[in-house]
# Entry
Amino acid sequence: MQITIIGVGYVGLVQAVGLADFGFNVTCIEKDKEKLRELKFGRVPFYEPDLEDLLRKNLKRNRLNFTDNYLDNIAQSDVIFICVGTPPKKNGESDLRFVDQVSKEISNKIKGYTVIVSKSTVPVGTSRRIENILKKKNSLKSFDVVSNPEFLREGSALEDFIRPDKVIIGCRTIKAEKILKKIYKPLNRPYVVTNNETAEVIKYANNSFLATKITFINEIADLCENIDAEVETVAKAIGLDGRIGPKFLHPGPGYGGSCFPKDVKSLIYQGKKNSIDLKIVKAVDKANELRIKFLVKRIKKILNNKFNNIQIGILGISFKPNTDDIRKSPGIKLVRDLSKTKAKIKVYDPQAMKNAKKELNKTIEFCSNEYEVAKNSNLLVIVTEWNQFKNLNLFKIKKIMKKPMILDLRNIYSKEIEKNGFYYYAIGNN
Ligand SMILES: NC(=O)c1ccc[n+]([C@@H]2O[C@H](COP(=O)([O-])OP(=O)(O)OC[C@H]3O[C@@H](n4cnc5c(N)ncnc54)[C@H](O)[C@@H]3O)[C@@H](O)[C@H]2O)c1
# Structure
């Protein structure tokens, strides 16, 4: 079976490398020339643990091929995975420009029966939209469009590819279903087979529900902070209820990344378009949007309303650990808001410095480790829970900070460190 992946970003590349490792021949079509060059040399253009090793292994085995050439490759493909981005427009609607471009591009090139799989997160009705584009050039309809949404988490993407909780196959024919099941057979995971439209909703409902859980525990944390209660204990206790479950109940600086914020907004837009007011989802979006403002106010309070002659050190810029992705990262938002004050800001992230430098203004001081950030700071804010921030040399930190104050937005440490002379502030526990 000849498989083609179009768009090799975080999702497409993991899919390509994973399927090649299962033994399939995979051709990747990517329009970004710089990315293409890196990949051909076996270099992953972003940070994702273990991905580069597996990429090199499968390049050596000649199972992976990278190109920008649609013409020579689409006709030979049995299955084409569309993995291009679907960024948000200003009004929350998903921008389907890239999906449309790809559909048009392949519409006059597919030959023989071909399955076109949408792995990109796309609003309800997009399978139909792709079908309609393809039909214009393929009156005999020698294709099927499948919706097969992706649920990987950056930072553990390969693990999630190999062991997903579920594989969603939204399709209209048994023929297409069988082909997808053949591809995913090595995974041996539960399938949910349904129509395309249901599959499309599943992805948005899934992400919006997780965003809701995060936002909910953040609100409970804010309450706990004011009433001498401990949010971690609340989260643990409610998580032990089998109907709730423990995951995604960690309070923090709000959800970020390239998926949750845009998927929540897109779902709201899809509701509006269908005259359905998704009140819960709207509230989640609003609460998350206000989260950083709330935290800036908290920082102001910790600093006694004074930013003059104050240095704030920020640990962590990526939206979560083990990735260099800073798209919609709370760390970026926080630094931007703090840099509007008079405080001097220093930042460090183990992987995201290159991206952070492109995104943040030049008044920020970019450091090469956590201790450089701490040096002369009045307040150290832990924003991303990288492992290396879990084991800081607190003795050293205390010595080099101007005032040993830590605001721990991930609740990595506890009040215990006050015994070492720190002023410690966490989320939902005062
Ligand atoms: N990143 C995640 O964690 C994640 C998880 C699940 C689902 N998704 C969804 O998967 C989709 C892709 O996300 P991503 O993070 O991989 O995006 P990305 O921006 O990292 O990658 C998309 C790639 O597609 C390429 N591309 C765009 N148009 C093209 C064209 N016409 N021909 C060839 N290549 C083209 C881009 O150059 C880019 O490299 C999105 O819809 C996203 O919502 C992402």
Observations:
- The domain at 195-430 is CATH 3.40.50.720 (Rossmann fold).
- The longest helix spans residues 196-227.
- The chain has 16 helices and 14 strands.
- The CA atoms of residues 162 and 250 lie 25 Å apart.
